[in-house]
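As a warm-up, study this chain.
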Amino acid sequence: MRQLIEDLKAAGWYLTNDGKGSHRKYAHAKVGRKVIISGQTGADAFHYQEKLVKKAIREVQL
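Now compare it with the structure written out below.
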């Protein structure tokens, strides 16, 4: 999880204040949607979460 969050932040995504519990919402000024990352920061990421973050980073780079 930590690596996914670092990758998002490096691509310009920032944490918003509207996440609940272990869910964190990230937004980007260039993209009109948010990315939600769930789970504890020390946990292993699921495959779908890795794909979601890669897709979000690609959207910003286009």
